């Protein structure tokens, strides 16, 4: 018994119904067809989950059966699906990559060990903003956040900057990542009619292969250079790349050079635009609501004093309102709105219906986060709700799952949370802010654009002012 859903049109199914913002369209469908409904994308059955209670049943009872990924033709370009931790099915190779990442990259111990590198990056961000402040210049907050996120990651992984604030290369990298996200997110005829798979070589993939190859070249160059001088005789790793190369060189290692390249592709695509887009939304929301901005600045001053300029990662636990702003931003603007699409590996009984084997599963995080049955005044930006209730993003509060849940939950969640609080805390503690171009708070454009991650449609320009 399939969940109900809107009537498909012949051949294309519900594809023509999606529009350019499928997360919003599907949230509206849930109002008519309920929190579990089905669609047809060509010949592919797609199941959409839009409430915390159905998500809870999915993750608690059927996580294993619904943990594989629906891999699109775009992801298959460059053979990324064969090595990527994000797109592999649950299999021994995926488990190995997750384990290596959890122990060697994202454990609290490893993140604590690399925090000085991130603090140095934040000092550079503050220096750049100071220069803009002195000149009275506006910054494109999404662009600046992208450069910072990219450098926070590149320093954690390679111990050097991949981008600089005054140079076009980080803009190019941002553009590249967005184009990959957009292509992967787009519904594609080849994916909707698996019999047309052979066409993928001729169509979609050409564009995406170009983007993928460009990104691959960047990482290949970095790895080659490191290998030229690589002699880790004392077994001490300098950074993540050292660690990955050491593991690769260990006897009977499960990690190949190719795996490392794809792992880097995963981390740099999954970790940069998600983080920078969240920061851009957070600043935009605060500029629309100056009282909350001031409240955050007061908290920072009370905890750090007026003089201390740099907020460090160890300060974050003392800043509950700052953390609440980050969480509230992730609630209203989750970047990965459908998680990464899942696929049923067998028939599953969920919420009284049957999810057939091979169905594609979208968990509509955007709809769940704004469900009026779960959240009071769901469209209002109110960080206070996270102070009143102890709600966490770690996949157990099913009304708030911006990082997913279950065995495929985002492995970079802790790093992302540190990066976000660090950037936001410093921008708010270091400067006052006003909206650029003479706009009023109510004029700010709050539209979003859809890809496999969703971003703010119009870049936000804001002006730093002395405190
Ligand atoms: C605000 C920042 C971020 C958000 C909102 C976010 C969100 C997500 C979501 C929703 C998923 C899919 C989870 C699922 O299917 O249940 C995911 C997967 C993933 N994320 Fe993140 N992420 C962020 C930052 C990062 C960072 C910083 C990294 C690493 C540097 C990262 C690496 C990954 C990887 C590798 C996966 C695939 C995991 C798998 O399939 O096993 N993410 N992320």
TrEMBL record:
Record-listed heme binding positions: 410
Protein origin, superkingdom: Eukaryota
Cofactor names: heme
Entries under InterPro entries matching the protein: Cyt_P450, Cyt_P450_CS, Cyt_P450_E_grp-I, Cyt_P450_sf
Xref: SUPFAM superfamilies: Cytochrome P450
Gene3D superfamilies: Cytochrome P450
Alphabetic keyword roster: Heme, Iron, Metal-binding, Monooxygenase, Oxidoreductase, Signal
Any one GO molecular-function label of the UniProt entry: heme binding
PROSITE patterns in UniProt: CYTOCHROME_P450
UniProt xrefs under Pfam families: p450
Alphabetized PANTHER family for the sequence: CYTOCHROME P450 76AD1-LIKE, CYTOCHROME P450, FAMILY 76, SUBFAMILY C, POLYPEPTIDE 5-RELATED
Protein family (similarity comment): Belongs to the cytochrome P450 family.
Name listed for the protein in its UniProt record: Cytochrome P450
Organism listed in the record: Achyranthes bidentata
